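User: Good morning. I'm curious how glycinamide ribonucleotide would be positioned relative to this chain. Could you predict the structure with it bound?
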Amino acid sequence: MNVALLASGKGSNVENILCYFRNHSKIKIALVGSNNPKSGALIYANNYSVPTLEFSKKELETTTILLSTLNNHDIDLIVLAGFLLKIPESFIDSFKGKIVNIHPSLLPKYGGKGMYGDHIHKTVLSNNEKTTGITFHYVNENYDEGKIIAQFPVFLEENETLSSLKGKISQLEWSKYPFIIERLCNE
Ligand code: GAR
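Assistant: Good morning! Here's the predicted structure, ligand included:
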């Protein structure tokens, strides 16, 4: 199975997934794509000798550069790991049930446009939530609304800070995403 990772930011999930699958017998990370030339994901991909593709938001929306590159690499599953652009409908048609996203909250809470990264955690903290977590879901044409695959909770302490909460969320994301990918590749 060939997997493509798409990311826009720091790329810590990409690094973790690349490390986990580096010698995997059945699953190969065959491409890392990003709309952000400064994304850490591209550097990590280079470190693991995985081909990369950079593209702009406009190229994603108006050209087939990403779709044809995915096809050229025989990609079976697209994994979004902090990818912040909307996936065009043409992708959703071509990769039905084969695009997975991670979201750092318990959807449907704190989902939708503009809800990503620190925005989510700051809102969770200011609402005095006792529990938050992470969600894995299939991607459809609406932000954060595809069918849920799995959710895992994170419990907030009295003295929880943005930084401590981000740390807990990241640890949980790193520990779960590789197994979710394996599960989807085996379906
Ligand atoms: C992760 O926490 C991921 O759940 C979140 O972005 C972060 C990326 O971190 N995704 C979203 O907010 C999607 N709406 P990373 O670049 O270090 O992997």
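The two ends are 11 Å apart (CA to CA). The mean pLDDT is 95.
Let me know if you'd like a different ligand tried.
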